[in-house]
Amino acid sequence: MAAFDLDMIKEVYARYPKRMAAARKAVGKPLTLAEKILYTHLWDGEATVAHERGNSYVDFDPDRVAMQDATAQMALLQFMQAGKKNVAVPSTVHCDHLIQAKVGATADLQEAMNKSHEVFNFLESVSNKYGIGFWKPGAGIIHQVVLENYAFPGGMMIGTDSHTVNAGGLGMVAIGVGGADAVDVMAGMPWELKFPKLIGVKLTGKLNGWTSPKDVILKVAGILTVKGGTDAIVEYFGDGAKSMSCTGKGTICNMGAEIGATTSTFGYDESMERYLRATGRADVADLANGVKEHLTGDAEVYANPEQYFDQVIEIDLSTLTPHINGPFTPDLATPVADMKTASAKAGWPTKIEWGLIGSCTNSSYEDISRACSIAEDALAKGLKPKSEFGINPGSEQVRFTIERDGFINTFEKLGATIFTNACGPCIGQWGRYNDPKNGPKNTIVHSFNRNFSKRADGNPNTHAFVTSPEMVAALAISGDLNFNPITDTLTNDKGEQVKLAEPTGHELPPKGFDVEDNGYLEPAEDGGNVEVKVNPESERIQLLAGFAPWDGKNITGAKLLIKAEGKCTTDHISMAGPWLRYRGHLDNIANNTLIGAVNAFGGGINAVKNQLDGSVGEVPTVARAYKAAGVSSIVVGDSNYGEGSSREHAAMQPRHLGVIAVLVKSFARIHETNLKKQGMLGLTFANEADYDKIQEDDTINFTNLTSFSVGKPLTLEFVHADGSKDTILANHTYNQAQIEWFKAGSALNMIKAEAAAKA
After folding, report:
1. Of 19, 53, 94, 97, which is the active-site residue?
2. By CB distance 3.0 to 4.6 Å, which of 51, 357, 580, 632 could disulfide with 660?
3. What global pTM score does this model have?
4. Which domain holds residue 349?
């Protein structure tokens, strides 16, 4: 069987030499890998100018689109309104988010099919109609499936999930976006991105012992923090990079989403070639070998990185030690050797309740084989785990292969629960508690990336720590967060002190990958007669109506909906977990809007003042009251507002409820773009100290919105209850096209108008 979309890959590689020559002429210096991929994917074709990093807005032409089931619903509902007969680029849908981990794979998958059948049926039928590849529930986690089947060196991909960046492990520039961006690309429109800054990470030495690729990104997260990579591509290079497996590289790129990076990537090397051939894509490997000089950064760049990157970090893999990051933030990095001191100082609970292995970042054959070696060693030495185990294989291909090779049997001997090939606990889809809001204070360790409060199980008291699959296995067996397998011993069933052996594993399965049914459905060659049915009474799927265009007047009399204080991620703006069921129904999911945000006035959650009657109500309820009264509202936020998942619902929901503007100290990149796409005003304080001037009873007037233009700040009057007012200057990053989105009411409205004009 040939690789998916081989003709497209051939076309991409065929144009590389000519486009690279143009890029070199335009830039006039050696190029990083990131620059090579960006300049060879310009919407206008060959480069004619050098784009300014961190400043220039550039139109790109991605090679493909990938969507997970939670975000695909809204993306495809929008695409249906765009007037197109077929997607313009290869696109796929992956059903991995709407499956709750609770009992085990078989029962959990059936429960998901029972509860979400109308969503799955909608996604399957709309994919069939518009030429989109469909991966059934249970087929695997989107990013692992993409790595196994679609990613290719030197390509550009966007995906409706922030961890799309996993494909950087195969040398792509793969970027998480909102559904509206995906609609643009699927509709044959250019995709806009601010030309990223470049962070180079030089890896020397070689991983050894208990240290794994996960520790590289855990270390980097500790250095850069959750926002240190914002508006930047992180490019890894050096002998240390070449020494790691392709899936290990994917792990590093994947968690790069947690430092705010646009994406992360590695240059094409022998490990990628091995992985391509092992996953049935020898034809892609052969094509890549034909242009391999273009699929990595120039030698001069890597020899003198300080001259070509905006920031350079160097890590010696030979001296790197295992890390454990958390709790409540993925950038709180603690070497395992220091955990005892850190936990005592912070007062973290040290008894581990659960160890969870898997997710899109750490569910490869190599990851599970190395974790399994720890389990095998524990069994051989008479150790019984002190914590519960959960395993989420990354794909049906991985699951089938690890079952064939005996890994699942080993884990089950330790009492592990094998969950569905899906996201599960990583995204809040974990049925751990009947009443998670009042769950006990406890600690879990996992190989997932995100560990925000309430993320895994809905319990605000769950302290979640991120570490490698190998360390998860060791810590779960010990039951102790302070356990250091490098130095510490455990007591076995004979009362003996034993030490766990260093993990071992296989980069790729010695017997090759195998699978009976990978879960893929090919779309109809001609979907013209395929009917997409949506029940008007459905609680899960709702056809969209376009947002109203701007009336061309200054917005006056707007009310403050909420002044959010501190961290306000997309989980705070539009929670995951049980709310995933409403991802295709805008009005229903809007009932979770900002219910997790902390109100700066009083510090409460989901309780804000309704200025119409002076009452205190839930955020969505108050927003609906303003909307019903014909009153616009605005949201004020803190720093890095919208960090986390790429979900566009966090922008669509406030827009649906009548919020016209979001004014913050700073934005996370994807969320700012999503606000723009939905026809909202995403603004930042020109003076961050002005945040403190905002009062609970404020009425807001825009004084110069009628002259909204590129580079010109907007002026807002915040009129206080006593009649006094503060005039605040708000910056924005809108270009002319984005201003037109605002005027039209949304980017989708613009696409519809353009499609109608061509019809």
Report:
1. 97
2. 632
3. 0.86
4. 324-481
